[in-house]
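User: I'll paste a sequence; please echo it back and then give the predicted structure.

Assistant: Echoing your sequence first, then the prediction.
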Amino acid sequence: MRRSWTIGVALAGGIGLAAPAAAATDARTDWPSVHHDLGGQRYSTLDQITPANVATLRVAWTYHLRPAPEAGVSERLQLSEVTPLVVGTTMFLSTPYGRVVALDATTGAEKWNFVIPGEDRASLRGVAYWPGTATDPAAIVFGTRGGKLLSISAADGKLSPHFGDDGIVDLKTPAVMTTGTDKSYILPSPPIVWKNLIITGSGPGEGPGGLNGGVGPAGDTRAWDARTGKLVWTFHSVPRRGEFGFDTWGGDSARDRSGVNVWGYMTIDAARGILYMPFGAANNDRVGVDRPGNNLFSSSIVAVRADTGKYLWHFQVVHHDIWDMDTQSPPMLFDVHRDGRTIPAVATVNKNALMYILDRVTGKPLFGVEERPVPASDVPGEQAAPTQPFPILPEPLAQTKLSRDNLYKGQPAHQAFCEKLVDDNNMLLVDQSFTPVRFNRYTVSLPGTQGGVNYYGGAFDPKLGLFVVNINNLAQPMRIVRNSDGSFSNSGPLAGLVRFWNPVTHLPCGPTPWGQLVAVDVNTGKIAWRSTLGITESMPPGQQDTGRPGLGGAIVTAGGLTFIGATDDRRLRAFDTRNGKEIWTYQLPASAEATPITYAAADGRQMLAVVATGGGLIGAKLESDVLMAFALPPSVQARP
């Protein structure tokens, strides 16, 4: 029933196997990159705010993201999933109004603002900071929906004159736009900066498009010179003929294959110079009839040398992905202490809620992975992988089985709605992971593509050895149908992005809790605690502790706290990292589907800041687009 697990690996000489297991904990008091550190831990050594005093946190300042009408940029382009950066005493962030701003991190006063040029000027998840060199000033770098990479001065917000074409590099080069430059190509998440390299993922689009729905721009990862904008190296996310992994694509299916892109976040082992890339599914990401095989490097973690892009090893989380599961969350770097040894590890979690903890030098699983048989597909011509990799530990972070018995139970009207939804649409409720979407029948998997863990990933407390992450127990109906041209797609009034819920009340039909905060002890691979995350205020008193779905991640601090927004109930919360107890809640003017940060202000206060721009999964309100910063009152700060 089970096969042994194997890994693709090509460990080159000079990789630095003798490097220390991990660099010392970054003691910076600012927040210089999206995840604070290159390894993605989102851990701050600040400890002024503690479980004993967090209840006294107060709003220190508020910055309204929506500019004044006279600024000429008053149309919101999207909700914000932005994590601000703080370098020294300056905060940098992109806004949902096509601007990048620099603020005084202590007061919130605006230092400068930059209006992103072009029609597709939106920058989705934030910016990156390059510290510059002895002769080159520090810069803020970011991408746009128009496929541009920009570099602006961190000092005054002006375009960097020696970078690309007057500060702009066109990412839509012939090398990746192999099917035409008219196709969509974006940079969904901030690049990662390594020394004098700016390393970019890609957003070539996804989904069906007729018989050749998988053809389009390449999802390659590329590195650019931070000073000049010149291309330094390219990693082919879909191997070319003669490259490792090409034989995992049947026939000519690798040619011009789109998808297989890093649309989330990359991380770097600074001591060893290893870059970890989380690749998404291949296009079409719900139907793979035209791409038989396991399809490397789709839905895989790939390790390469950060300075050259040379392949080292990979781990494929989903073979022949036909669920849009991806591996988009940042590969988390930490140490595992086991049997008297310290093992450098990397962990990946994704939408199917499975967590894989690997040796980050070799890619070998530390707690075992088994290839287990999974159901076959009934879509004509679909060759679903017969087995999929299951970690022995940890157990699934979210719920993975859906049946009539565990549909929502509680409030009578909603319970009746859910039962009728299933019956009226002849829905198949999936009780086994990796069950393919059925042909001409709605298939409801738990978690769905908005469930489990999304792009934000987790946080890590190195003192406690706890990986902390928020999960969505959110299912989603899907159905594969044949189009008029003979191709297949995920289609129907309940398919696509429709959740398994009441679309009016936004109450999910799966089992509660619909949102949780989960901690994993990385030294044992076992769950340390689970806490319900979020409330449903529309429910009757006594039934509101349901948990809520959402987007955005958690951070952890040396003060023993986990901070998180994320949920669509418009709350910012603090939990005791040791036991998962919720100990502080603040109601925001809008939901924070973004990750908070913490940093030290110029006056010594530990600050907590988060962007809030909407109702999460339940809509948005323009007047509530804010960045809020919190701090302890002076009387509390002064206490020993």
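Residues 8-637 form a domain with the Methanol Dehydrogenase; Chain A fold (CATH 2.140.10.10). The chain has one domain: 8-637.
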